[in-house]
Amino acid sequence: xxxxxxxxxxxxxxxxxxxxxxxxxxxxxxxxxxxxxxxxxxxxxxxxxxxxxxxxxxxxxxxxxxxxxxxxxxxxxxxxxxxxxxxxxxxxxxxxxxxxxxxxxxxxxxxxxxxxxxxxxxxxxxxxxxxxxxxxxxxxxxxxxxxxxxxxxxxxxxxxxxxxxxxxxxxxxxxxxxxxxxxxxxxxxxxxxxxxxxxxxxxxxxxxxxxxxxxxxxxxxxxxxxxxxxxxxxxxxxxxxxxxxxxxxxxxxxxxxxxxxxxxxxxxxxxxxxxxxxxxxxxxxxxxxxxxxxxxxxxxxxxxxxxxxxxxxxxxxxxxxxxxxxxxxxxxxxxxxxxxxxxxxxxxxxxxxxxxxxxxxxxxxxxxxxxxxxxxxxxxxxxxxxxxxxxxxxxxxxxxxxxxxxxxxxxxxxxxxxxxxxxxxxxxxxxxxxxxxxxxxxxxxxxxxxxxxxxxxxxxxxxxxxxxxxx
Length: 471
Hints:
The strands form three sheets. A five-stranded parallel sheet has the order 2-1-3-4-5, with helices on both faces. Strands 7-8-11-6-12 form a five-stranded parallel sheet. It has 20 helices and twelve strands. It is of the alpha/beta class. Helix 2 (40-49) runs parallel beside helix 3, helix 13 (328-342) packs across helix 15 (367-381) and helix 19 crosses helix 20 (452-461). The longest helix has 33 residues, at 114-146. It folds into three domains: 9-130, 3-Layer(aba) Sandwich (Rossmann fold), CATH 3.40.50.2300; 155-319, Rossmann fold (3-Layer(aba) Sandwich); 323-469, Helicase, Ruva Protein, domain 3.
């Protein structure tokens, strides 16, 4: 049986009770998630409500009220990815041609043989599987085209490059440590791209971004009915990364109870979905990343020692940007060209030597991520062909704020402008909260209604330093 990422959902729409019962009974035996309703109007409400996700709809053409042709039309308008199979006891070439022209996948006259129906469904699954593979290959091609790019010629970056060349062919777990924004995920992608697993998926999982209640389900998956809202079975990060690489970002933020289950999965190369008892074997390589000192967490009994040794087979401490200052001019010029092209500027802005020297002297606490944000901001605000120093470098903890007028004048594409507005709003909101709480992260997080670790991550991404807001 061909498997997709989630259980196939099938909606049966027929006013005949016997047909509905037969379809539910026989299709459920094939491990499909099957729901049956008696009218087109009820089916449409279910699809519009999005309470359940349906991949295939089996529709009777002749029904009282909304008939199958009208339902087909409405379904195609709502979601073109849903495949519709038409069925009728009144076989007609005209209705068949009409249905197929409107986008129906196939047409079955009643009484149909169940093997014939399963055969059609299997063809649909194969089509969807092929579409998934095409999307995966396109994403992989996109990743290979735009990255992973490890830019720099410093001794520190040469060490990183040699590390990647040495460990990529070896099937061992790797722990990447270092400050936030140093490019740990980029290094993980480079290791994967140069490994024997490169034809498989690389699945990133941000351990700090998920709540404790969702973390186990996201990592290991769940079965239908495992908890409220689990309408279908779902694969977790481990299963999605099968035959590839799983990147566990911010692994130091994992709660202790999840660490034990992660240890078992790493040791046995098998998982158990939430709400299930069956073991599923997986073949994955794990690359973990953290900006915390895991050895200190082990001493404080906040991180399991046995899990630490399982993840830390090989370790790389990724250098901060201030440890490779000679790479700052190279990175700056790269980001200038990249954002000039992304924002469709008619020219590549210039940057003078004095500004580059001052950027090299600055410590960049947010590392490469802060540098990239600063350059993208400066490129947006450049109006005379030259990047301004006050747009690139912080002054007393703050950079020159963007105004909506300057964004509108920059003539960015909608998505680029939306991204910059969100980025600027986030930065200014964080500055305000940190200022009101005198740089106290715990108090600021409480006032914002968010986790302390999540606030710390946002602060690092925005290139802020809480110390600048202390009295």
